[in-house]
Amino acid sequence: MKISGIVGEGRRQMTRGKTIQLYLMDGTPKGRIKCTLANWTGVAYKIPRTGLEQAKKIKALKQTGVYFLFSTSDETQENIVYIGQAGVRKNGEGILYRLQEHKRNPNKDYWTEAVAFTTSNNTFGSTEISYLENKYTKMAIEGKRYIVKNSNEPNLGNVTEEKESELEEFISYTKLVIGALGYNIFEPVITKVTPVNIRLLVDDEPILTLTITPHKGQKIIAKGKQTSEGFVVFKGSKLKTQVEKSASKATLKNRELAKHKYDENFILLEDILFTSPSAAASFVTGSSVNGRKEWKDIYGKSINQLEKEE
């Protein structure tokens, strides 16, 4: 089964769309998937851990390439990734052999899905995959969406200026493909903005504020914004110290999972993404509240009011 789609590369800049083809090798989105992009020599394969045996028939996986092992933490529910490279061995096996080694390794038994990148013309050598592994690892760490399990920083390798330009283009296509496969590993929770618009807008969405003054307590001020994925509460936001009895189980769980993301003064140390404005507002206030009413822009308009004006 083949699925084609057009992906845009940004809202602010005028860019041409890209045609991505997803081939469902097992006829189901939960099975093996081959992903290609028009006018790109790269090719990606998404393989469930349970599908490695069937993947033996994929010739491209005997080549040199770079791979990602994905999972979710049982304790914190945070996303996990390990990034590695695979060269062709004397036995003629490349990427697939490394994935099979990881499956047998008890120290890497956490992963449930793998995404592998190689080329349709088998042009990757050791220099190319070292460079890509290094760059992908740094990008994943900077994105702060996944816990990166790599214990050591991969060697960047020595590449020529021409080769670096070629590989950076490969990386730009990789970001589109891996995003289309469902992994926002390289995308920051919010896009950086210029000082001119930081008080008002981020990605064309207004910056919103939630303010409460607890009884005999310090004023709570949190800032955030809506995104296509939910609602982001910004780093530096203040949380209410006490959690109310009215707080839902989800709010209690979010506070517990994020306890390492705020300091002793209950100030957020990083941006946090929530599924909705209400989930974000409840996390900040430690109670059950309607975020669509509580988050407001600089003019005092709530999300509900802003949407009525659209």
Quick take:
This is Methionine sulfoxide reductase A. By secondary structure, the protein is of the alpha+beta class.
Supply the key terms.
310 residues; alpha+beta; 24% strand
Question: Helical region count?
Answer: 7
Class per helix and strand makeup: alpha+beta
Using DSSP, what is the number of strands? 14
Beta-strand residue percentage? 15-25%
Average pLDDT number: 84
**Strand order of the main beta sheet, please?**
1-2-3-4-7-5-6-8
User: Helicity range of the residues?
Assistant: 10-25%
Tell me which oligomeric state these chains represent. single chain
What is the count of structural domains? 2
Radius of gyration of CA atoms, rounded to a whole number = 22 Å
Q: In terms of per-residue confidence, which ranges show pLDDT below 50 for 5 or more consecutive residues?
A: 9-14, 192-202
Principal-axis shape = elongated
N-to-C span: 39 Å
Give the SSE order as H and E letters.
EEEEEEHEHEHEEEEEHEHHH
Largest sheet: 8 strands, mixed
Give a structural overview.
InterPro entries: DUF4357 (IPR025579). This is Methionine sulfoxide reductase A. Residues 256-302 form the DUF4357 domain. Pfam families: DUF4357 (PF14267). With 310 residues, the chain is α+β, with helices and mostly antiparallel strands. A hairpin with a 7-residue loop joins strand 11 (208-212) and strand 12. Helix 2 (126-143) packs across helix 3 (161-180). The longest helix has 20 residues, at 161-180. The protein has 7 helices and 14 strands.
